[in-house]
Amino acid sequence: MEATVAFPEAPVPAAGIGPATLPRIADPGKVAPKDARVMGSLFFEQLQLLEEGTPEYQYARNTLIEMNLSLVHFAAKRFRNRGSGEMEDIVQVGTIGLIKAIDRFELSREVEFTSFAIPYIVGEIKRFFRDSTWAVHVPRRLQELRVTLAKAREELAGRLDRDPTVAELAKHLELGEDEVIEGLIASNGYTAGSLDLPIGVEQNSRETVTYGDVKGDVDPALELVEDLHALAPLLEELDDRDREIVTLRFGREMTQAQIGEHLGLSQMHVSRLLSRLLARLRKEMLSER
């Protein structure tokens, strides 16, 4: 509940003496907006006179922030259809914009602080959505379409008492159904879901099944299959002895000494042959890619 705060007349400093003592406010967040405007002028005036980093300066700055947090909540409501469930994050980002506005505001501008601060707050929130919330790159056209669709869905859901169909959205927005579908698909790139997200319970063990448990992954054996597929025609081009050496070493997993004994060659000779063969095959496979 807002509280109307009665505060004493702050003493006005004499010329060349320095800032006046500011009134103490127990809970600045409960100050009514009309009082916040009056007191804001006083606090801004003193903020410009106080030395940065002093306790009085911090008190004046923090009080201005708390007194004007209602502006952040007001601005954050404009983004409730953006698809983010983390309104707390939006308020925190908006508060950064409020702080920037307080640090840059000057009474000499002769404008209301509210009018000066709102663009800073909204700009910071928009920057948050632009830079932080899209999990994958999506064209700006589709980013804007996602917002339009979100607003249209909420409006039509209120009228129809159910979620609207693609056809109903397309008619309402005067767009093609394909374009609406494209926008809905693009919404999936707005945020990334956690692999630990529960999606059900396994019947036998009654253990929770997460998205990560059922999500497909790249099979490391696929790369081996591709390599073998590329290697097969190259092996066909080897002479009988070279092909046999490769087969004995990698097919039957014989040691170089065993291969030498099998072929009547020294281990050193087998080692040199294998090195030459592998270098040749590697070069030819790379040239094929």
Structural description of this entry:
There is one protein chain. The chain is mostly helical and 289 residues long. The protein is built from 13 helices and two strands, in the order H-H-H-H-H-H-H-H-E-E-H-H-H-H-H. A hairpin with a 6-residue loop joins strand 1 and strand 2. Helix 6 (140-160) packs across helix 7 and helix 7 (166-173) packs across helix 8 (177-186). The longest helix has 22 residues, at 267-288. The protein is elongated and about 100 Å long.
Q: What fold name stands as the CATH topology of the largest domain?
A: Four Helix Bundle (Hemerythrin (Met), subunit A)
List the secondary-structure elements in sequence, H or E. HHHHHHHHEEHHHHH
The domain count comes to 3
Could you tell me the radius of gyration in angstroms? Answer: 35 Å
Strand order of the largest sheet: 1-2
Pfam families: Sigma70_r2, Sigma70_r3, Sigma70_r4
Keywords: DNA-binding, Sigma factor, Transcription, Transcription regulation
Protein name: SigB/SigF/SigG family RNA polymerase sigma factor
Organism: Streptomyces durocortorensis
